[in-house]
Amino acid sequence: MKKLPLQIEIVSDVVCPWCVIGYYRLLQALERFEYEVDPTISWLPFELNPQMPEEGQNLREHLAEKYGTTPQESIEARQRLTDLGADVGFTFNYSDDMRMYNTFNAHQLLHWAAEQGKQNALSMRLFEDFFGKRKNVGDTAVLVEAARDVGLDADRARELLEQQAYADTVRELEQLIAGQGVQGVPLFVFNRQYAISGAQEVATFEQQLQQILDESEPG
Predict the structure, then answer these.
(1) Cα–Cα distance measured from residue 173 to residue 199, given in angstroms and rounded to the nearest whole number
(2) Global pTM?
(3) What are the distances in angstroms from CA 100 to CA 61, 63, 118, 137?
(4) Residue 138's closest CA among 43, 17, 51?
(5) For FRET with 193, which of 61, 107, 176, 212 sits at 20 to 30 Å CA-CA?
(6) Is 207 in a helix, a strand, or coil?
(7) Which residues constitute the domain of residue 38?
(8) Regarding beta strands 4-12 and 37-45, do their DSSP bridges make them parallel or antiparallel, or are they unpaired?
């Protein structure tokens, strides 16, 4: 059977829990879809907190300041995300001392990783580092270790981060994405033509895949 070619671009931040859940739901939809699909997945940069200082901020305090989230709402949200993560096979390991961090350097490294064919692996690793191990995904040492562990050149990764080699490129991409009206993540774009916003249910992704298939068939 001929495979359906599918370009999937995911606008995301590595500190966005819904991006993780949405990605795994997308994978489930691709696995369940009756027609064989040949997906190419790439990740595009979106910073949830571009002004976040280098030392970060307590996550619960951050959510209270940004969204007005109460302590009880925070507890309930964390439990919900933990349960949803378990449903798709991802572990959220929240704690009261967990911090939110600046992700601009992470996005630079991800852009370079795409050129090396390692972007998806690095993205997954950074999700796990932040949500599973509560690491500072803006820290150079953390990023270099992640790069090395997914098969990238650690010395080159450190050099690129120290030189801020992809800073302008990432900022231009972020501005382009914002200019297209994107205000939140995740956003899943299929073949530059169809889009799904948010961590929708698996069935929603399946319906989108079916629409793409139907409209790609002649006649």
Answers:
(1) 22
(2) 0.95
(3) 9, 9, 25, 9
(4) 51
(5) 107
(6) helix
(7) 4-216
(8) parallel
Q: What DSSP designation does 173 have?
A: H
Describe the strand order of the beta sheet including 37-45 as a list of residue ranges: 37-45, 4-12, 187-190, 194-197
Can you give the three-state secondary structure of 109-120, one letter per residue?
A: HHHHHHHCCCHH
CATH code of the domain containing 17: 3.40.30.10
User: In this structure, how many other beta carbons lie within 10 angstroms of the beta carbon of residue 117?
Assistant: 10
**How many independent structural domains does the chain possess?**
1
Structure tokens at 158: 């450190």
At 67-76, the pLDDT tens digits run: 999 999 999 9
Asked if 123 contacts 157 with a C-beta cutoff of 8 angstroms, the reply is: no
SS3 helix, strand, coil % of the chain, rounded to 5?
Answer: 55, 15, 35
138 and 104 in contact (C-beta within 8 Å)? yes
